Amino acid sequence: MITGSCCCGTVKFELQAMPTMLGTCHCTRCRKAGASAIVFVKRDDLRWVSGKEQVALYHPAAPYKYHRCFCKLCGTSLGEILSEEDSFPIAANALDTPVALQNQFHEFTSEKPGWYEICDDAPQSPGNPPS
Questions:
Q1: Which H or E run contains 106?
Q2: pTM of the model
């Protein structure tokens, strides 16, 4: 079992299975939220322990379409943890249990700041990776 939480401990969740993949998003939105590393989880594997009602949902302006969630109390970025999709990304920083995953992609590299150096061989995409 993999556990996760926000910084203040109000939001707590469990994953019944290992995330399916780890990736890095370099878009300005993910960078500002402090959650560029994302893991993909299956909705049926997520179990809320506490604090779901303390998760706020941010609706972005175009061209971005994905909503972002965060703890209302401490502001910890939680990715798309309220998604109704079968599989969705959550912020890797919210996981308490270490997961043995290697980075599998870099997306929105066209928005990557010059001071950040990509130091792995994962495929890079200037926007969303190809399906």
A1: strand 103-107
A2: 0.89
Closest CA to 7 of 69, 56, 70, 82: 70
Please check whether residue 94 is in contact with residue 49, taking contact to mean a CB–CB distance below 8 angstroms: no
pLDDT tens sequence across 38-52:
999 999 999 999 999
pLDDT tens across 78-101, in order? 999 999 999 999 999 999 999 999
User: What are the domain boundaries of the chain?
Assistant: 2-20+37-101
Instruction: State whether residue 6 is helix, strand or coil.
Output: coil
Token digits of residue 76: 């910890």
Residues constituting the chain: 131
Indicate the fold that domain 2-20+37-101 takes in CATH. 2.170.150
